[in-house]
Amino acid sequence: MTTDRFDFKAAASLLAADGWCVQPGLMSAAQTQALATECAAMHDAKLLLPARTGAAHTASALRGDSTHWFVTGAMSAPQQAFAERIDALRIALNRELMLGLVECESHYAVYRPGAGYARHLDRLRDNDARVVSAVFYLNENWQETDGGALRLYLEDGTHRDIYPHAGTLLLFLSAQFEHAVLPATRDRMSIACWMRQRSLGATT
Ligand code: OGA
Ligand code: MN
Fold first, then answer.
1. For residue 141, with 0-12 CB atoms within 10 Å meaning exposed, 13-18 middle and 19 or more buried, which class applies?
2. Domains, the chain, ranges and CATH?
């Protein structure tokens, strides 16, 4: 068996210890590039739609991204490759941490220059389904001067800025960490993903 380029066990123990972690190597460089190329082409073709928050209205004051949800049974090859890797991670987290994660949902997101996402929690009100948030970044040659960090607010009152470099995977516990997307000076592409448990309080 070939050694896996992603350390599932390390991701699980960091998540258990700190509630969040950044890990490289989920996808190969070629797979990451294929996702970036597709995301940019779909955005150019206006196939990404302004994101919604909670109720059925767009709230560009809160978030300025456009998204495309991955649809089971209708995924492109790059999307399918991503979905398989993130599902392998879901299963590894179940095995190591007994989290009871039953499914993943993912979308491409593009933030145009100046767009961001105000400080928020990924748990929707009255719905505890989202347990682990995963964000995978697609941007080649990202510089810190480009802005666009994901700002993760820690429980001790400090924060960490994670830059959206191609190949970076950020994991954090959805219920625990408020975060924001800071505006950038260039287009910023990511895949946002949530690993879900069978929801107790869900109304939908
Ligand atoms: C989200 C989110 C972060 C990012 O979609 O909820 O916080 O870096 N995205 O794209
Ligand atoms: Mn979020």
1. exposed
2. 8-196 (2.60.120.620)
